[in-house]
Specification:
Residues 174-186 have a biased composition (Low complexity). The chain is mainly α. The protein has helices at 2-18, 22-30, 40-49, 56-66, 74-90, 93-101, 103-108, 122-137, 139-156, 161-164, 186-192; strands at 115-116, 119-120. It is built from eleven helices and two strands; from the N terminus they run αααααααββαααα. Strands 1-2 form a two-stranded antiparallel ribbon.
């Protein structure tokens, strides 16, 4: 039965990836049901998109949609949480408020369950959702994390004025490979308990999802 569910999940993901705009496809790739994480470059581009009034709703809708996946698609849910965490620290202020508006959904993931061959994969989702809720509830810490991300942008490049339209000036932008919330380093993978760590270069995907 589990094999059938996996095949069904793969068929569903393939069908979804056929259509969609370039931005939607980028979100699909960032949250794909594959045992590796999205690159920091890709997450930075998605964070940048939250500063555009037309692209912002596309990004957030994609995140919340994929967060609703369950069972054999646990990686999709988990990776949508990782992307949301990155957006909270590197995206527009509106993205932060959107996350707060979805606190009920985030808290409900504290009961996420999925095990395969004796391995509790659900713990990855439960722990990540808990950490995000804690961050959203701690305004002082969130401000500090966003300021760190902004400082890093000052070193490695900032948000273009074109992308800032619609969300005011002085908003935080998108991080870099050295940001605490950037990418999927092997250290992050070990911290989050997501299986074996994979390879990852500068700005590339890191931790594996066993």
């Amino acid at each position: 039965m589990d094999t059938f569910n996996k095949l069904k999940a793969m068929a569903k993901e393939t069908a979804v990836q056929v259509g969609g705009s370039p931005l939607e496809k980028k979100i699909m790739e960032a949250c794909a049901n594959k045992p590796w994480g999205a690159s920091t470059t890709m997450m930075s581009e998605l964070a940048q998109a939250t500063y555009d009034y037309q692209e912002y709703p596309v990004v957030m809708a994609g995140v919340w949609k994929r967060m609703g996946e369950r069972g054999a698609l646990w990686r999709v849910c988990y990776k949508s949480l990782c992307l949301l965490e990155y957006l909270i620290c590197n995206g527009s202020e509106r993205a932060v408020e959107d996350a707060r508006d979805h606190m009920y959904q985030l808290r409900s993931l504290g009961d996420f369950q999925y095990s395969h061959e004796g391995t509790d994969h659900g713990i990855n989702v439960r722990e990540k959702s808990r950490k995000i809720c804690e961050l959203l509830n701690d305004r002082a810490r969130l401000k500090e994390e966003r300021e760190k991300a902004r400082a890093n942008r000052g070193k490695y490049g900032g948000v273009s004025s074109q992308k800032m339209q619609g969300f005011g000036s002085g908003s935080q932008g998108f991080g870099n490979s050295k940001s605490k919330y950037g990418g999927y380093s092997s250290e992050d993978a070990k911290r989050d308990g997501v299986g074996k760590s994979g390879g990852g270069g500068g700005g590339g995907g890191g931790g594996g999802y066993g």
